[in-house]
Model the fold of this input.
Amino acid sequence: MLGPLLPYRPPTPPNKARVATPSPARATNVIPFVIQRKGEDAAPDNLIIARTTPGSSRLHYRDEHPRDRDVRGVLFARVGWNEPDDHGMPTGEPLWKFMHPHRQMMTMQTLRCQVCAQPARTSAGFIFLAGPHDQDPNQTEILTNQPPVCARHVRISAALCPHMDKHPMVFLARSAPLYGVSGVLYGRLLSGDIHAVARPEHAVPYGHPDLDTFLASQMVRRLTNFRVMGVTELTRDIGTT
Done:
């Protein structure tokens, strides 16, 4: 199922990205754009590995479309898209445990808010959230698969994600270059059939040779120039709602 760029619709996938499940007490009528919906099922598996040059092969869909690959040419898993509402937002019952792979990729790639799909840039940089114990705040760089949020949706995002306990670690980043992807590495059997070879525990950086036969489900950015703060401090500095 194909369609335009943000805020709505394209293809995408078997490998579903896990996100925290919100408790009923914290649920609101706001459903983040990146959340997968009921009815958005994994597309039929029609992957092939084709030789591109002597000694080199690449993973493809038999009916591949340019939107099946990210800006760096990595193939992304396919999951269906429900019809959008009048505002171009996804419809259907939310599957809170999963992020829609293509919506995750598109919001991360274009640095749009994972809640409303609008541009996430603020005057002070981009806002990325993590649980209060998810990251070491003393690190000089952070890898994240969580798309940014706009200032308007910082508190809503914190409320929807229980492991943030309403007190997320906030990374206000001036620099967040693309790093790589997570997903599944495929290989080819002697019979010619393809199969999953490995699911790397860590993100695979762009430029790695394994990405030729890799099916991604999440895009990852690297935060390098950032401040670590809490929501109260962020509100004081740039204002949030």
